[in-house]
Amino acid sequence: MAGTVRETATFVASWIEAGLRRYRFHTNVADKNRFVHAFQNCGGITNNWQAWEENGHGVFDNSEVVGVLGARVISCGINAVTGQSCHEISEIGC
Question: What is the pLDDT of residue 89?
Answer without folding.
Answer: 77
